[in-house]
Amino acid sequence: MKNNSSLSHRKEEPENGTLYIVGTPIGNLNDISQRALNILKNVSLVICEDTRQTKKLMNKFSISNNLISFNKENSLNKISKLIEELKTGKSIALVSDAGMPGICDPGENLVSEVKSEGIGVICIPGACAAITALVSSGIPSSKFIFEGFLPKKNIDREKILFEISKSEKTTIIYESPHRLKKLLLDLLEFCEGEREIMVARELTKKFEEHIGDNINNAIMYFQDKEVKGEITLVIKGRKKEQQQELDKADLKRDLKELMKAGLSLSAASKYLAKKNGIKKSIIYNLN
Ligand code: SAM
């Protein structure tokens, strides 16, 4: 007889002593599943980034439950207490303000510690801006790199921009509206203007927009506008045939050799930057 145990659901939810990671909408409140609503209604407590935000969602579906704040500032102090609650048999739902908890939102540490205690963790999948943008971009979506928000510190940022410029895989980036223009200019510098891109604005909401089709055009589109709303970028990988002989490992090796021959880091970087037509700081940071 065919074993269907993996298809049907296990027990009635929520189960005692279980942490539920619940995906919530990224704009359109109708993007919530029946299963998520059932969990939010019936767990012992709901831990959320901002109780006011989660309350809006609960009110929309006429649900009420105990809401406890669990955000960037207070989450680390709360983990051991939550683990105790789970051990006493309580069920807990973790939500963020929008989308999947743990994706540039609190949750990662809690899940890792709860799992290390051997406590059950179940995800109720929901919307995620990265995946929503990716699959609607028309840009290859089977292999991709998710960078989240790029670092602000120049050294770290340039390293990642360099990696993106070299990557053959699609890259997804989150960005705030007031930093979008700077990011597009950085991408222009590292990836050049012809690189295919989609800037997804306000996904799932009334004024959803997909702006592209390449970096040059996205810059032109936004240049005289005040950027508003939530933004996710999808950047196509570099085409194989466009690959220059600019391998990071090769650059590192060349840098080492020049320094061995007596050049300072600065002089060697300057030389290689000129030779390869890229910024000196990129080579400098490879050391
Ligand atoms: N956990 C969320 C998820 O699963 O997508 C992401 C949280 S992160 C703090 C917020 C960022 O996600 C925003 O700054 C934006 O880059 C992206 N984002 C969230 N909602 C979006 C939307 N409706 N349209 C475009 N990007 C969105």
UniProtKB/TrEMBL annotation:
What EC number(s) are associated with this protein in UniProt? 2.1.1.198
One MF annotation (Gene Ontology) recorded for this entry: rRNA (cytosine-2'-O-)-methyltransferase activity
Q: Where in the cell is it found?
A: Cytoplasm
Q: Which Pfam families match?
A: TP_methylase
- Keyword vocabulary terms for this entry: Cytoplasm, Methyltransferase, rRNA processing, S-adenosyl-L-methionine, Transferase
Q: Which InterPro entries match?
A: 4pyrrol_Mease, 4pyrrol_Methylase_sf, 4pyrrole_Mease_sub1, 4pyrrole_Mease_sub2, rRNA_ssu_MeTfrase_I, SAM_MeTrfase_RsmI_CS
Q: Which GO terms describe its cellular component?
A: cytoplasm
Is Ribosomal protein one of the keywords? no
Catalysed reactions listed for this entry: cytidine(1402) in 16S rRNA + S-adenosyl-L-methionine = 2'-O-methylcytidine(1402) in 16S rRNA + S-adenosyl-L-homocysteine + H(+)
* CDD domains from the UniProt entry: RsmI
Tetrapyrrole methylase domain sequence ranges: 18-211
**Which superkingdom?**
Bacteria
Per its UniProt entry, what is the enzyme's top EC class, as one word?
Answer: transferase
Record bears the keyword rRNA processing: yes
NCBIfam families given for it? 16S rRNA (cytidine(1402)-2'-O)-methyltransferase
Q: Give the function comment from the record.
A: Catalyzes the 2'-O-methylation of the ribose of cytidine 1402 (C1402) in 16S rRNA.
Task: Provide the family line.
Answer: Belongs to the methyltransferase superfamily. RsmI family.
PANTHER family cross-referenced by the UniProt entry: RIBOSOMAL RNA SMALL SUBUNIT METHYLTRANSFERASE I
The identity of this protein, by name, is Ribosomal RNA small subunit methyltransferase I
Species this chain originates from: Prochlorococcus marinus str. SB
